[in-house]
Amino acid sequence: MFEEPYRWAEAVSNRREYLEDQLQSGSPVVALPCIEGILLLSVSAGTQKIYEIYDRVALGALGHPADVERLRNIVIDMAHLEGFNRSPSDVSARRLVQFGLAPPVKQAFEEIGRAPYIARLLIAELGKDQNRIFYSLNYDGVFKETHTGLVLATPGDATERCESALKNCERLENRGMSEVFGEAFKLWGLAEVAEDSRESHLRDVLKDREIEAMLLSESVPGPCKVRQLSKTEMMTFSQPWRTPV
């Protein structure tokens, strides 16, 4: 289709610009360690942003709902196949990202004749001995691993702001869920607007949008260590932004 390499490179560059433009309106997703395990948080106007994938794995997504659903089904199918053919303990975020998600996402991005996935993903795993692992997967198939938490923000300044702020969040793994919930909500706000507008933005958001949060914790009974936070918990933890100034 593209006989000359520079034409292919130009087409890929144009595709990258298109995808980043499409992702600008997406709602960020935050995943942070806490003493209980891992907390994932986002804010939405109805579209689900955070999903259980397997016993110890959860996914957060920013992008087009149809593309997110396609990728979610891919990773769920792989997780359950791995758990059945091997064992539940062999299902890991690393394998799901490296062998399940990254190859089809990269292929769709580079094949100019195909529609790319308009999505960025966050995958969190609560490993044994409270080992917390976070992966971010970009729309081009590039993924990164960290153990300190992640903010899945829109490309550009928002990502840089959040990365800088996350470095200043000290010892989150030793802080309780209610405190880390506040940090996650503030990071979500920073991914949306500049710091000087954050507090007013967070108060405005709660007037017509809903917080969505999920916890991965050893305290959850049974083999599945994933649970949604209740509305009561989220109302309580977000009360500082619901109280009139």
TrEMBL record:
GO terms for cellular component: proteasome core complex. The keyword Membrane does not apply. Pfam families: Proteasome (PF00227). This is Proteasome subunit alpha, bacterial. GO terms for biological process: proteolysis involved in protein catabolic process. The lineage of its organism: unclassified sequences, metagenomes, ecological metagenomes. Its EC number is 3.4.25.1. GO terms for molecular function: hydrolase activity. Keywords: Hydrolase, Proteasome. It comes from hydrothermal vent metagenome.
